[in-house]
Amino acid sequence: MTxxxxxxxxxxxxxxxxxxDEKLIEFVKKGKIDDIAFFINGEELNHSHLTKAETQxxxxxxxxxxxxxxxxxxxxxxxxxxxxxxxxRGYQVNPEIGFNTFVDLDGNKAxxxxxxxxxxxxxxxxxxxxxxxxxxxxxxxxxxDFRHYNHSPLKLMCFCDYHMxxxxxxxGKKETRAEFVKKMLxxxxxxxxxxxxxxxxxxxxxxxxxxxxxxxxxxxPETDLAQMTSYPDxxxxxxxxxxxxxxxxxxKGHPKVARPHLPAYNEVAxxxxxxxxxxxxxxxAAFLGEDAELYPELESYMYSPLVKSTAFTAxxxxxxxxxxxxxxxxxxxxxxxxxxxxxxxxxxxxxQIKPFVNQLLENRLPIDHLRGIKVLVDQxxxxxxxxxxxxxxxxxxxxxxxxxxxxxxFGFATTILPISKKxxxxxxxxxxxxxxLRNLTNAQVTELVKNNFVLLDGESVQVxxxxxxxxxxxxxxxxWHPVRSNYQVFEQADGQTVDGVESPRxxxxxxxxxxxxxxxxxxxxxxVWSFAYNAVDEKLGNVMAVIDQHIVVLPMEQDLxxxxxxxxxxxxxxxxxxxxxxIKPVDYLVDMPNVKLLVEKxxxxxxxxxxxxDDYQQIKWHLGEPLKSNEATIxxxxxxxxxxxxxxxxxxxxxxxxxxALAPLETIQILF
Length: 672
Hints:
- Strand 24 (531-533) and strand 25 form a beta hairpin.
- Strands 14-13-15-16-27-26-23 form a seven-stranded mixed β-sheet, with helices on both faces.
- The protein is 30% helix and 23% strand.
- The chain is built from 16 helices and 36 strands.
- Helix 10 (310-319) packs parallel to helix 11.
- This is Glycoside hydrolase family 42 N-terminal domain-containing protein.
């Protein structure tokens, strides 16, 4: 199998040269590129939405190269850089094109960014994509400006006169934009206004995708339409229905094709990247499902090894295997038409890792069939969650990604599970954060909590309290204490030992959210593992606890800026491992912080990826289930080859010891 390298490439029709074309062909050969996605009207060269004649200039410039690439077995795709338009940059819509622009929730009108329900824009976009299809690309991409948010300098859209008419028709009454927005965001039970907004946003994007798909496949039936995506929590705020949107885009007989976001446009610490990878990339992949073709985004901006090393770039490409990707979209060079820069040595790096990524694809990770702690997410959460102040649109963002990043960094095997009202779980280990439980009925919540091993955060507990379901946790009373309020300062695990430290302490003062102090009913089955203290060592109340031998509570909110950063310490890692050991065997790595562990449901394939600059001389894996065999094959990259090593595994006290090292930024696969 071939792991598809798609190079995103800017050919400037006005400044291209034969020399640049020759350098591209040589790069393709040296770097083992399979597909070129030519930008059209992108980034610095973007000059608003193009007319049919302006679009043809780009296609005519691409076609000669398309022929040359075909002769060496390389396909051509297209990456038009605009649908709605990313941002206003001083341009205005050409009157010849003439569609309306959007209005944000504050009443600001865009100059160059389309209203997503405007019939003229929809017709223009479909006709333009049909024109792109005329050169029969392998894949035709929709950019990630196909969304209702992140269109600088404006905010969430669209609240133009046309949209307000649509909203009012569905409401059955007339409201001004300001009235509608206020009710959409207001605290308390979600309003009809919010439902109307989300329903409209959801449906208009599905309809637009369908119109484009019909137009494209009429011209080029063999072309796959593909969609670039952004942040899944923000997509929830626009009501994105992942399955139906991508079905509409694909059309009959075509796969769902997506580019999940890889969250590192510049090089960041790999352990930080690992957190974002869980929160954005893995959650997006889970929403799309393993039947989708995934080609994640390798973006380097502002470009060159001054902002991202080749080693980190290779690391991003290889670890994209952790979502079962079939290839990668490579945005390695700038979008101004400079072409290929050989001095950056990307071709050599790509050629060196190609055998290994091909090998990983032979045993592709099945994202719908992994074992481990199930982190629950729901695309519909913005319909149900409750805002606190109703002042900021960010209050409609779900907080469901926290366990994903924390457990992944702690070395727990996890899987992301998108749920619906039909989801039924029993005897599973599930992790729930934010207000996800509001999406379910009281009966469903009760069944979920009673029938599974459940990890809950403070917001989840609050939902239970709001629903009068506190008895599920034996709660007598609970009270929130704001962060930095001169109350709680640190958490202490009295009587526990982690990393050789007795009664270790974890901050509750900085980079953390508010604390929910819970008092439990007398004589209830609750074991408290840690307590809150103030600055003079006075014990204030319970923190982490195990309830009825199957519920783990972390009674904290997330900080608006820092999320759960305070929790990322090996003291909390060790404490959580001990707590789960006391109730249910689970898979996790021992003494290997920030190494990710993914395990196929049947236990026959395992992936480990080191998201740190530290090396580990031995692999120690606490087993959630017995091994299939004490013999296994380790697959790893050695220079430009694939090395397969037969190993014997020693098991003591439910820990599998594998006497193989794991280097910094290294990914390996273990086959049983």
